[in-house]
Amino acid sequence: MTHLFLADTVTPSEQDFSREAGKETAMAKDILGEAGLHFDELNKLRVLDPEVTQQTIELKEECKDFVDKIGQFQKIVGGLIELVDQLAKEAENEKMKAIGARNLLKSIAKQREAQQQQLQALIAEKKMQLERNSVLLVILI
Fold first, then answer.
1. From its phi and psi, is residue 37 left (phi > 0), alpha (psi between -120 and 50) or beta?
2. DSSP single-letter state for residue 36
3. What is the mean pLDDT of residues 24-32?
4. Coiled coil: which residue ranges (predicted)?
5. Which helix (H) or strand (E) holds 38?
6. In a designed cystine with 37, which of 8, 32, 85, 125 is the match (CB 3.0 to 4.6 A)?
7. Which candidate, 65, 33, 61, places its Cα nearest to that of 49?
8. Is residue 110 within 8 Å of residue 102, measured between CB atoms?
9. Beta bridge partners of residue 46, listed in sequence order
10. pLDDT tens per residue, range 91-113
C-alpha cells in the first residue's frame, strides 16, 4: 500500500522512508506473485493474476456471444429444416398426383382400345349383315 503525504515540503528522511516503503511494497508484491497471489486494481488480494482474470472475463463474454450465435443459428437451421420438410411433402403430393394422372391416362387409353375393338367387331358384324342382305337382295331380284 502506498502512502501519500499532504505537505508542502518533504524532508529527506521522509523521502527515504517513502522510498523504503515503496521498495518493501514491491518486494512484498514480488514474493506474493511468486506464491501465486496478486493484488487487483482495488488492492484486494487475488489468487489469479489480474491479467488472467481479465482474459477469463473476456473469454466468458466471448463464449456467451458464441452460445447466443449458436442459438440463433439453430433457430435459423430449424426454420430451414421445417421449410425443406414442407417442400418435400408438397413434392411428394405432386408426385403422387402425377402418378395418379399417368395411371388414369393409361386406363383411358386401354378403355379406348377396348372400345375401338368393340366398334371394329360391330363394324365387322354389320358388314357381314350387309353382305347377307345384299345376297338376299340379289336373290330376290
1. beta
2. T
3. 63
4. 105-132
5. strand 38-39
6. 32
7. 33
8. no
9. 38
10. 999 999 999 999 999 999 999 99
Distance CA 32, CA 37 (A): 5
pLDDT of 33-82, one tens digit each? 666 676 666 777 666 667 887 898 999 999 999 999 999 999 999 999 99
Kindly report the CA angle at 3 between 14 and 19, in degrees rounded to 5? 45
What letter does residue 47 receive in the DSSP assignment?
S
Report which DSSP code applies to 46: E
Q: 136 is written with which cell numbers?
A: 338376299
Whole-structure pTM over 0.70, yes or no? no
Distance between CA 78 and CA 19 in Å, rounded? 66
